[in-house]
Design brief:
With 244 residues, the protein is mostly helical. Helix content is 70%, strand content 2%. A two-stranded antiparallel ribbon has the order 1-2. Strand 1 and strand 2 form a beta hairpin. The termini are far apart.
């Protein structure tokens, strides 16, 4: 009870409930790690990769392919460097589970803001936030080791929120963050940019979202070349339903 009072003062309103849920999620994922219930894929890949990044600055692994290879030869995900500073402090695989739980759970805030922006009541908005936390692909995904894809949904939710509230700086920042998750994330930024381009009336907005659409495609082409430079090739099978 005392902990809840403290949390409610630091995080007023319903945010205190959310923080408690996030803490519970991390405890559960940490318990899974402590009981040797994590498999090599993908958690082994990323724990090894972050240790190599901490030592050499390079995302090298020996688990993904035969011999030493850069993870960027498989997927281009510069987002990992954003959370590397925290790894220097903790230097433990538990940090990856902690940051994943925090980032995934943080998606509840844009969910609530999107609901409020669309005119829903505070109670309904909070209920949607809880639904987000309990949604199987979000909740269960947090318990399936560590993966950069968990950042994607959160970045996209913030992106949609900033688009709806016409906050251009936030829109640009989270467009770039979304692109940083993986080379194929460009398709989401492109989709949001096209939606906003046809939805917005302002000429300035139309120019902004046209530029974001071009940048997203350009980033994808650049990422493909960088993957080749690292000795790999893009997994075109992921686009099998789009290629025709």
């Amino acid at each position: 009870v005392n902990a809840q009072v403290v949390i409610s003062r630091v995080f007023p309103g319903s945010a205190g409930i959310i923080v408690i849920v996030l803490a519970a999620v991390f405890v559960c994922t940490a318990a899974k790690y402590a009981s040797y219930s994590h498999g090599t894929y993908d958690f082994g890949i990323f724990t090894q990769m972050f240790e190599q990044m901490a030592k050499t600055g390079l995302p090298n692994t020996t688990v993904e392919r035969e011999g030493i290879v850069s993870h960027f030869a498989v997927h281009f995900s510069p987002v990992f460097y954003l959370i590397l500073p925290g790894y220097y402090l903790f230097r433990s695989p538990l940090y990856l589970l902690l940051i994943q739980a925090v980032v995934t759970g943080a998606g509840v805030f844009p969910v609530r803001r999107i609901c409020r922006t669309l005119g829903l009541s505070e109670k309904i908005s909070l209920a949607m936030g809880v639904a987000y936390l309990l949604f199987p692909t979000m909740a269960n995904g947090t318990f399936c080791d560590f993966h950069e894809n968990k950042f994607l949904t959160v970045f996209l939710l913030y992106l949609v929120w900033f688009v709806l509230e016409n906050k251009r700086a936030g829109t640009v920042v989270f467009s770039l963050l979304t692109l940083s998750v993986k080379e194929d994330a460009f398709i989401y930024v492109l989709a949001v940019a096209m939606w906003a381009f046809f939805d917005k009336k302002s000429k300035t907005d139309k120019i902004l979202y046209a530029c974001l659409a071009v940048v997203s495609v350009g980033y994808f082409l650049l990422a493909c070349q960088l993957i080749k430079l690292c000795g790999g090739e893009i997994m075109t099978g992921r686009f099998a339903n789009l290629s025709p």
